[in-house]
Amino acid sequence: AALISLVRDQEINDLVVSIGDLERTFNNKSDHHYTWIFFSEDKFTDTFKKRVGEVVSGEAKFVQIPEEHWGIPEWVDRERFADSLEYLGAIGVGKGWMVSYRHMCRWNSGFFFEHEALKDYDYYWRVEPDVRFFCDLDYDPFSFMAKNELKYGFNMNILDDARSFPSLWRQTRKFLEQNPKLVHKDADLRWILDLSPGAGPRQEVGDLNFFRSDTYRAYFRHLDKNGGFFYERWGDAPVHTLAVALFLPKKDVHFFRDIGYQHGINMQCP
């Protein structure tokens, strides 16, 4: 298992706060000391590496994302993409004008689990810069997931701006119509069948092999070819939420209510 973070050099101050909290409450206790893997589209500076090395208790790895996972695919209409950036920015959709945010959402949706740096790992805990962890954990979430054969864990769902993904559910329905047998027979679909779901996790502990599955990869390819990560502003959070709801039985999903967590104004308190 590994602790992973997608981060830029300029976010180092926020990142060391997040690392410090999680080390204090979990990773620097008992015999955990899990490896931290940091991803960025640019090379990390020596200063960044030094500061991170001072606060992690396990090994730290620094990985540059390949261009083919961070660029604009050839099938995306550049003019339509530019119009989307301008429009979503003008109507006030959060980060709707940011090219880098589109790349980030696409990478988190379809490529992070494919990276060579994670090939020897089965589980990940996603940690973002400027999040806080408040409560001591007296158990190992990774071991807990493995023992109970869980595939996905979270502890907070936040509603995203519906204007950022107007066609996401429609494209998901289209995929399901073409691949009806891929929906898990014990999936809990009650809350999404007649909705356009926009809730997504802000705290993930997951099984990488779920995302590496043929089913999830096929779903992502369908979405990616549609171009919604660029023509709209599809977030990785609702994409993950839909995939988990559709392709996993409810028993494989866990709510980590005992992980005290804060991201901005949003907080989960046990």
From TrEMBL:
<dbReference type="InterPro" id="IPR002685">
    <property type="entry name" value="Glyco_trans_15"/>
</dbReference>
<dbReference type="GO" id="GO:0006493">
    <property type="term" value="P:protein O-linked glycosylation"/>
</dbReference>
<dbReference type="GO" id="GO:0000026">
    <property type="term" value="F:alpha-1,2-mannosyltransferase activity"/>
</dbReference>
<dbReference type="GO" id="GO:0006487">
    <property type="term" value="P:protein N-linked glycosylation"/>
</dbReference>
<protein>
    <submittedName>
        <fullName>Nucleotide-diphospho-sugar transferase</fullName>
    </submittedName>
</protein>
<keyword id="KW-0328">Glycosyltransferase</keyword>
<comment type="similarity">
    <text>Belongs to the glycosyltransferase 15 family.</text>
</comment>
<dbReference type="GO" id="GO:0000032">
    <property type="term" value="P:cell wall mannoprotein biosynthetic process"/>
</dbReference>
<keyword id="KW-0808">Transferase</keyword>
<dbReference type="Pfam" id="PF01793">
    <property type="entry name" value="Glyco_transf_15"/>
</dbReference>
<dbReference type="GO" id="GO:0016020">
    <property type="term" value="C:membrane"/>
</dbReference>
<dbReference type="GO" id="GO:0005794">
    <property type="term" value="C:Golgi apparatus"/>
</dbReference>
<dbReference type="InterPro" id="IPR029044">
    <property type="entry name" value="Nucleotide-diphossugar_trans"/>
</dbReference>
